[in-house]
Amino acid sequence: MQPKLVPLAECPCARTVETVGEWWSILILRDALQGFSRFDEFQRSLGIAPNILARRLKHLTESGLFERRLYQERPQRYEYVLTAKGRDFFPVIAAMVAFGNRHLAPEGAALVLAECETARPVEPVMVDAASLRPITPDTVMVVAGPQASPGMRQRLATIATMRSAVPSQNE
Fold first, then answer.
1. Which of 3, 75, 84, 90 is the most buried (most CB within 10 A)?
2. Domain total in the chain
3. In this model, does residue 3 exceed pLDDT 60?
4. Residue 127: strand pairing partners
């Protein structure tokens, strides 16, 4: 993990990367969102070394993405169940699948997301919950939240100045 840098420490992107940005963590969460919950299931699916898997599961549990539950007494065995926070990571995985299919699969998609009831393929897009309009780099900007530090406000002011000085890609 990288050291916390102010104002990056208060940036939601930096905090997310610190929590789940490691390669194995994202793949573990992907598998958990598909129904895996046991150590041996993750290990078999990912081909990951047991010590690395144990470390990643411990970190994800301490970060509140998993809850560790005993499912067998002798020997003691635990499963890793996604919390609400862990399930909230699903849109990130869906976006990664869409991005990978669009930009990194020249031979075609190896997997797609589909509706459970009909198996109709779906194309994930990010929309504003209130207006249902797509969220794109051209339609939104980053602004200071109520808890932004002076350093974060300065950083955002610098970004706003840079953005106003560069012509839009649509011009």
1. 90
2. 2
3. no
4. 134
